[in-house]
Amino acid sequence: MPEGHSVHRLARQFNDVFAGSVLAVSSPQGKFAAGARLIDGQALERAEAHGKQMFLTFSHELILRVHLGLYGAWDFGGDSTFTGASSIGAPRRIGEQEVAGDSGGWGHGGPPEPKGAVRVRLVSAHGWADLRGPTACEVLTPSEAAVVRRKLGPDPLNNLPGDGGEFGRRIRKSITSIALQLMKQEVLAGVGNVYRAEVLFRLGLDPMRPGKSLQVEEARALWEDIAKIMADGVRDGRIITTELGDRPSGLGAAVGRGLDAALLGSRPNKDVPVQDAHYVYKRVGQPCRHCGTVIAMAELGGRKLYWCPHCQSGKA
DNA sequence: GATTAATGCTAAA
DNA sequence: TTAGCCTTAATCT
Predict the structure, then answer these.
(1) Which residue from A106, A134, A240, A294 has the least number of CB within 10 angstroms?
(2) Domains of chain A: which residue ranges?
(3) Separation of CA A118 and C1' B10 in angstroms?
(4) In the predicted model, what is the mean pLDDT of chain A?
(5) Percent of chain A topping pLDDT 70
(6) How many CB atoms lie within 10 A of CB A118?
């Protein structure tokens, strides 16, 4: 269940390793055979991310739209030219979690036998990419792609001028709870269940507040914090929302003992233990990192919502 | 080894 | 509203 940061890393990876290259496109699984024929043999012009969706534009202007959904993922492999072109560390896999390291599988100048249900395989002169388990995978014309993108709200990782204000107008339009609205891709594109829970905690907002009740200033702060922690996610390749001083182990503890946080340099979130990465997400029953109150959980709109009943009550 | 839940969305009913 | 995608890590026996 990758959120927007993973999709932006994917787009970067495709631009790094495939842009300008002619791609052989196939569907080993067979389910995308017709679509694959439409783009087979074309050069990839560019990759773009909008929220949780990725758009690959080919030289004849057709566009491959991919949404990873619940457990979709891309696997990569290739020669040294291919891995060397990656600016994000030549990952072996990008999906719900990112896997680093060598994929093997370019031994005889080509990709390995597809394992499992590979919906799409892309092969260039130097490497390959396999897509499994996507929710959406289709070839669109430019105008069809524009229709899809018009339905999406602003993406905090693109953060174009005016996007913050547009987000504020959209979320303040409805009495629907801000917890539900943050998951709506037409309000803002890219936030999922982890960032939703974490940003509401970071700003001390009650998840059940109606969007309409947000002050303009509160909506702006919400947008800015989402943009910040998601940009961290793009940099780190994982979701880490805790501040250094709120981490009980590892370097957070060292800082607590007096180590200068500045020593951490450009990688402030390097090697954060998983149990220290979040404030509330999947921490039901555990003590709040700020006040010790037991973290609560409830099902809302079919998804689990986590929050601190004290820090996010409006009384804290 | 078997079962379950999961950082979503789509399409059928 | 519900099934489906068909993977993976964590949890259970």
Answers:
(1) A294
(2) 4-150, 163-241+277-307
(3) 19
(4) 92
(5) 93
(6) 21
Distance A187 CA to B7 C1' (A): 18
Biggest CA-to-CA distance, chain A: 64
- Give the DSSP H/E element, type plus range, for residue A148: helix A142-150
Cα–Cα dist A86/A76, whole Å: 11
CB A17 within 8 A of CB A47: no
- Give the lowest-confidence range in A131-135, A242-246, A266-270: A266-270
Q: Is the pLDDT of residue A252 over 70?
A: no
CA A261 to C1' C2 (Å) is 50
A304 touches strand B (CB under 7 A): yes
Residues lining strand C at under 7 Å (Cβ) are: A 29, 31, 69-71, 73, 93, 95-97, 99, 116-117, 119, 132-133, 135, 274
| CATH number for region A4-150 | 3.20.190.10
Instruction: Report if CB A193 to strand B is under 7 Å.
Output: yes
Asked whether A153 and A167 are in contact (CB, 8 A), the reply is yes
Contacts of A20 (CB under 8 A, 6+ apart): A43, A44, A45
Q: Which CATH architecture describes the domain A163-241+277-307?
A: Orthogonal Bundle (1.10)
**Structural contact between residues A252 and A276, judged by C-beta atoms closer than 8 angstroms:** yes
- Over range A26-45, report the average pLDDT: 95
